[in-house]
Amino acid sequence: MPETWLVVGLGNPGPRYERTRHNVGQLVLDELAGRRDASFRAHRANARVAETWLRAGGAKLILAKPNSFMNVSGGPVSQLARFYRTEPERIVVVHDELDIPFDTVRLKSGGGHGGHNGVRDVAAALGSPDFARVRVGIGRPPGRQDAADWVLQPFAAGDREAVSILVADAADAVEELIEHGLVTAQQRFHAPRA
User: Which residue numbers mark the site Stabilizes the basic form of H active site to accept a proton (predicted)?
Assistant: First the structure.
């Protein structure tokens, strides 16, 4: 029987936040669903879920976007993990990362939350930090701008093409991680660009 993976895109609900830096994880989930012509539907775990496959004969993917605000993402994630009987080792959380340069994707499994309140809440709710993270670099704000304001702003209009490439790269990273494992995915996405 194929493995089931729960892939969660962190973000905030509602149209006000849709295209903001903080919601880049949910943009990646939209990309993954779009590649498979999968649609999100309401789930009782306070999330929108699309059930699909990595590829024909491959792992089953549960793509999930919590309806809760970022900092309280753990409840929906833990409910989905129980519903789909998915252990932390088969969970991938896709989220924005201030400490990674814009247009960069990094992967890790386990460890600390690095000050990311959404990741902190997911780890607390699961009772374990041992899930994979696809960290999508949004960079630090310019000058003295507050980081909280920065993450809640939409990407600049001039960055649209770069954001599309970044989202596609992060979706590729999720697929690589599930198909070939963390180390192989890290070797591909952590290598310097030619």
Answer: 96
